[in-house]
């Protein structure tokens, strides 16, 4: 068999590669000769993936609940993959930054548009039964989601809105003590930290703090201002950051709010979330006023933050009833 010039060139490049590493190319070719062809199921570890659902009850819809949350965490991992590429890029350009934020927005678009699975995809009676076996676990305990927030903005923007001005010049450690989600995970009756929150802090606090410190100058806000100060045209990037702000701080929490209203709203007293979180105050965006990029919004837009979305959802849910 005669080798084409292209094959000869590739063999020459391989020889250079292995020589530079002090390796024998022929030995690697022997390994390639005996290796099996790769299959789809082996490449993505399909059998392992499909074995990772372990319901705590025999109630059928619990599997839906498990699988959707696993899908969610995979999307979060994709988003963090893009966050790292942006933060660690040696010569970041507006084009690269914009393209990666656009990817993150695509992931959150998939998440928010698919959340109807959680809103209408389970029987309410089944959900209210199997959820009691999950205590005190809660979707509140998604560490990856908190990491996305840390990568996306200056850390002060994650401090509870009642403490932001006071702690503007405080250390990250001090700001972390007043991070917004701690206020959402308090026992409704006593006001004490829930077990859900204590577990979460014990597992992730050190990791969150280190990430926040590492991203002080490489979070999306800091990088945006750096590129802008250097004279770059950041208009397309600003559009994508506004979309990200809405996805993470309005659409995604609102999706959960819709689900909570569907399953937990009840007269005269709402049903508590599995983690004991105060979902009525914690989830609606208009209460939290969590905004990553205030410099990209008008005062009026920030004043009305999330209000229209919440009212429209409540109207939709009441019409369904």
Automatic annotation (TrEMBL):
Origin species: Pedobacter terrae
A GO molecular-function annotation: metal ion binding
Tagged with keyword Oxidoreductase: yes
Top-level taxon: Bacteria
Protein name: Tryptophan 2,3-dioxygenase
Keywords: Dioxygenase, Oxidoreductase
Keyword Oxidoreductase: yes
GO biological process: L-tryptophan catabolic process to acetyl-CoA; L-tryptophan catabolic process to kynurenine
